[in-house]
Specification:
The complex is a heterodimer of chains A (about 900) and B (about 110). By secondary structure, chain A is α+β, with helices and mostly antiparallel strands. Chain A is built from 37 helices and 17 strands. Chain B has a single domain, classed as Alpha-Beta Plaits (2-Layer Sandwich). In chain B, about 25% of the residues lie in helices and about 40% in strands. The chains are: A alpha+beta (about 900), B alpha+beta (about 110).
């Protein structure tokens, strides 16, 4: 198989993969010698069975001459490095000649030596591993060129291990081919365009790639050693593969190359002894190749005598010479073996560009380079966090020494750096410790000069026990601890963290909630002002920005309400609900309050206080989810006035009023202004049976707004259509205004990438939805197949579904709370049951937290709340559906 | 002397404290407590599930006052802590035989 190669550095056959399958057709002519036959004996000149042309004979002559010279050197006992390098150079000349003869080819191409040949240690019978690298795609022209290049080599009987690639192929790491990746580390350009080789280098040498190769190499070493029972003291050693032999030697150098180029300087063997060992092992290998006439690397008993003689070991008897040979072998193998062990033990694991993980934590491989690149510093802390370790003292001193040279902007060069910082702030074990290290070495205060303002700041209030900066970092520690706590009074707060859509915003808010304390005035306002600067630098905008500022501005409000106000008073809860507006903000503020109080001193958050906070949370949550149907937008509402004032030209004042009046006030809290205008346009001129859609991608999720006029089974039909396209609904709202206009807003993930893969996806969804809503199509049939899909099958319910109805919470509606395992088509099934019971779905809140779906329906029957009997019937109907018994 | 042990709503502590201060009663002990009286708490519902809130958070304020102003102090506490709703709390009045100041060993009757 010509597309398979057996490279020097590998005992495993490598399959060449290319974009086109043309390679499969690249076979040597039938007359070419088969590679499986022994081709040469040491004393018979090589004969080809094919008919060489005139160029062929010139090539043959130069190859033969090179081989004769090599054989002679080996026979003199000089088959070591120098000789092999000379031989490699002559083969280079041959390859260049073949490359020139193969022209003309117009595109960019390079011939690159890999593995042992790349290192110029080409033994007599080693394969010649080549990479034919194209710079501009592979088509028929390239295929023809490959033929013209390889055929003469095959005709010469050279065993070529070749790979054909386009540079683009290296954008994706060939993780199933670690030997090939290893061989690429020795890549050396032989013929063709230098620029192609350089482009390859830039694409290939990435921190991730190096880390992967290192991991693979360590695994390969272990595997190979196991085959030799993990001992180098073999009576008949394989001078290539055995522990302590050539492959270990190369591996040791590779580990150093991939982790710390200066590693071996600190190792057990100096460079000269290491080179001696290499020279010796190569000499032995050369002798074996010459003696056997093939790629034979085992120094067997029979071959030991001949090798000892050729290498000139002294001794009267063959036995004495062999003994000298073997003791030299073991001496060298031990040096190699010890160096490799040392490298494996001490080499830092690469965890990023110029970053390695050592026993003392994450450190810079090259501190000089690191000192010049401050944008790489925060990544060190992320790497330490990921690895569950710390940043090494060495790296911290390096940062501390140079940090004053840089300004805040130097740490965020581009959007990638800013996104990385936000990712770093996700609460998880270790975050506090890393932030503290960052603070101690001065980096935190440089990245955020605002934070520097409260460094060691003492505020004497007989209440706080720590300096302001430490108090701040402790709030983050408390949050991080909360993520894993099992303490009885904490565990319910822990569940809130899992619900958060962007917990890093909470950490950001915590980091700056008290920075205003550098002054003695009202610190919350000053903190907001300073945080605005930070957010601007980080380019945190929109809702995220508002959330952070909201939390900082109001960080004392929840404890005030919980501890100083009568929370039994519904008016207090109502006011607090109006302050937070949405469940997400409520959860954030609640968590912020808990961790802030806890950071004052170890005893400040008593179970008693925790209980008060939790009750306020629950009451407010219930108010937000169950009572919002009673709080409608009125004509002189502040939010409405603001929308009128800012409305774009194509939206009229009447339109705004007509659309918003009678919708719950919650609507104004949930949607930003631009979205509201989009909804207004969507609802324009809507006729019965018409459905208007608008779709927007938001990161990993999609936002869909549907406007239509109310009718029975509407909500379940809409949900059913989405599910029938495989959409997983995460969050959503359904609103009905007094004019019968229905507005449903969903956020969902497109698990099957329907929108990505189908250009007309939006039209398809629209058509199906119109057909279903108008009764022309039946969604049940569309869904049946999907619901029965094996992918949707659930072995058992993770937790029993909760169905609860309440007639007291709202003045107008019966509230139906459902908490159950999320599943495809769940909303469809639930809302269908509701409609089947003759109930109208007026408002819906949809939330998902992990695998749990939390849905709150506001329903009525013939315009009134449900009677007790109707509630019982509906509840049991829903229970049966959710338990899958109907 | 009388020990006045008042169980009040948490949000009323500051009012009670101010009212007592007006009577020049400065020393007091405030404790976070939980309990229930006739108002046996209620069941709260979070996401469709009931959870028990039968023990309600209250504050306990203890003051020791001379017999002469005990009635006035009780009246001040009641007025300050009262909302008129169930759950306003109670004041217990307990006779104190004698008390010692730990720093000096002085005894008061």
């Amino acid at each position: 198989m010509p597309m398979m190669i057996v490279p020097e550095s590998s005992a495993v056959r490598l399959t060449a993969r290319r974009r086109s399958d043309a390679g499969a057709r690249l076979r040597p002519p039938a007359s070419a010698p088969s590679y499986d036959c022994p081709r040469e004996s040491p004393n018979v000149p090589f004969m080809s069975v094919s008919q060489p042309d005139s160029t062929g004979s010139a090539l043959r002559a130069s190859l033969d001459a090179a081989r004769v010279e090599l054989r002679a050197a080996i026979a003199r006992g000089a088959g070591g490095r120098g000789t092999l390098e000379r031989y490699a150079d002559r083969v280079d000349g041959l390859i260049r000649q073949v490359f020139t003869d193969a022209g003309p080819y117009d595109g960019p191409v390079a011939v690159i030596a890999l593995g042992g040949y790349g290192r110029r240690h080409l033994c007599l019978h080693s394969d010649i591993d080549l990479l034919l690298l194209f710079g501009n795609g592979i088509g028929p022209d390239e295929e023809r060129f490959v033929h013209r290049f390889l055929n003469p080599l095959w005709d010469l009987g050279v065993v070529v291990g070749h790979q054909v690639r386009d540079i683009e192929d290296f954008q994706r790491l060939e993780t199933d081919n670690p030997e090939f990746l290893l061989a690429l580390l020795d890549a050396r350009p032989v013929a063709g365009a230098r620029s192609v080789f350089e482009r390859f280098g830039a694409v290939f040498h990435q921190a991730d790639t190096h880390a992967f190769i290192l991991r693979s190499l360590l695994a390969l070493i272990e595997e190979r050693h196991a085959k030799f029972n993990d001992t180098l003291y073999q009576l008949e050693p394989d001078v290539k593969d055995a522990p302590g032999a050539l492959r270990d030697l190369t591996a040791t150098r590779t580990i150093a190359l991939l982790t710390d180029p200066l590693l071996l300087r600190r190792g057990p063997a100096d460079a000269a002894r290491f080179d001696d060992a290499e020279d010796f092992l190569l000499e032995v290998r050369s002798t074996l190749h010459l003696e056997c006439g093939r790629n034979q690397n085992v120094l067997s008993h029979e071959l030991q005598e001949r090798t000892a003689e050729m290498l000139g070991f002294p001794g009267a008897e063959p036995g004495q010479r062999v003994e000298k040979l073997m003791s030299d072998y073991f001496r060298h193998a031990r040096i190699v073996s010890r160096s490799l062990e040392w490298a494996r033990r001490t080499a830092p694991v690469p965890v990023g560009p110029n970053m390695g993980l050592s026993r003392d934590g994450v450190r810079f491989i090259d501190p000089v380079q690191a000192a010049r690149n401050p944008a790489s510093w925060p990544a060190t802390f992320q790497a330490a966090l990921d690895a569950g370790t710390e940043v090494s003292e060495e790296a911290l001193s390096c940062i501390q020494q140079h940090v004053d040279r840089y300004r805040a902007d130097d740490f965020f060069v581009d959007a990638k750096d800013r996104a990385a910082l936000l990712r770093f702030l996700k609460p998880r074990p270790g975050l506090y410790a890393r932030l503290s290290q960052m603070h101690d070495c001065g980096l935190l205060g440089r990245v955020f000069p605002e934070f520097q303002a409260i460094s060691w700041r003492v505020v004497r209030d007989f209440y706080h026990k720590y300096t302001v900066d430490e108090h701040t970092l402790l709030t983050i520690r408390n949050l991080e601890r909360l993520t894993t706590t099992d303490a009885p009074h904490r565990v319910r707060f822990r569940s809130l963290i899992g619900d958060l859509q962007a917990p890093e915003l909470l950490v950001l808010a915590l980091l700056f909630h008290d920075v205003g304390k550098w002054r003695d005035d009202d610190h919350a306002l000053e903190s907001v002002r300073m945080a605005e600067q930070v957010l601007e630098r980080l380019q945190v905008t929109g809702e995220s920005r508002e959330v952070v500022l909201f939390l900082i501005r109001h960080h004392l409000r929840m404890s005030l309400a919980a501890f100083r106000r009568d929370t039994e008073d519904p008016e207090i809860v109502k006011q607090f609900a109006a302050l937070v507006g949405t469940e997400e903000r409520l959860k954030l503020l609640c968590l912020m309050t808990v961790v802030d109080i806890e950071a004052v001193s170890p005893d400040t958050l008593t179970p008693w206080k925790a209980e008060l906070l939790w009750r306020l949370y629950v009451d407010t949550y219930n108010h937000l989810t169950q009572r919002y149907g009673d709080e409608l937008i009125e004509r002189n509402e502040a939010g409405l006035t603001e929308l009128q004032a800012n409305r774009p030209d194509d939206v009229s004042a009447t339109e705004v009023t007509k659309f918003l009046e009678g919708l719950p006030q919650r609507y104004l809290h949930v949607f930003p202004r631009d979205t509201i205008y989009r909804h207004i346009r969507l609802a324009r001129d809507i006729k019965p049976d018409e459905v208007h859609l608008s779709l927007e991608q938001k990161g990993a999720t999609w936002a869909l707004a549907v406007a239509t006029l109310d009718k029975p089974f509407l909500f379940s039909n809409i949900c059913g259509v989405l599910s029938s396209f495989g959409m997983n609904i995460l969050r959503g709202h359904a609103f009905t205004n007094p004019n019968g206009l229905v507005l449903d807003a969903f956020e969902f993930t497109d698990e099957e990438r329907f929108f990505e893969l189908n250009r007309d996806a939006q039209d398809q969804v629209l058509h199906v939805m119109q057909d279903v809503v108008s009764g022309r199509a039946d969604v049940t049939a569309r869904l049946r197949g999907r619901e029965q899909s094996i992918l949707q099958a659930r072995s058992s319910l993770r937790f029993p579904p909760v169905v609860h109805t309440d007639n007291k919470a709202s003045g107008r509606y019966t509230i139906l709370d459902i908490v159950t395992g999320n599943a495809l088509g769940l909303l469809y099934r639930i809302s269908r049951v509701i409609s089947q019971h003759g109930c109208d779905v007026d408002l819906v809140l949809i939330a998902t937290e992990g695998e749990k779906a939390i849905d709150v329906f506001h329903i009525t029957k013939a315009g009134s709340k449900l009677t007790e009997a109707e509630q019982i019937a509906l509840t049991s109907g829903l229970q049966r559906t959710l338990e899958g018994t109907v | 002397m009388k020990l006045l042990k008042s169980i009040v709503r948490p949000n009323k502590v500051d009012d009670v404290k101010d009212a007592l201060a007006k009577l020049n009663i400065a020393g007091m002990t405030v404790t976070e407590v939980r309990g229930h009286g006739k108002q046996k708490g209620h069941t709260a519902i979070y996401r469709g599930k009931e959870y028990n809130v039968s023990l309600l958070p209250k504050m306990e304020i203890e003051v020791v006052v001379p017999d002469t102003i005990a009635d006035e102090a009780i009246k001040a506490i009641v007025q300050a802590a009262r909302t008129g709703e169930i759950g306003d709390g109670r004041v217990f009045v307990i006779p104190v035989q004698e008390s010692y100041r730990i720093r000096t060993g002085e005894m008061e009757k």
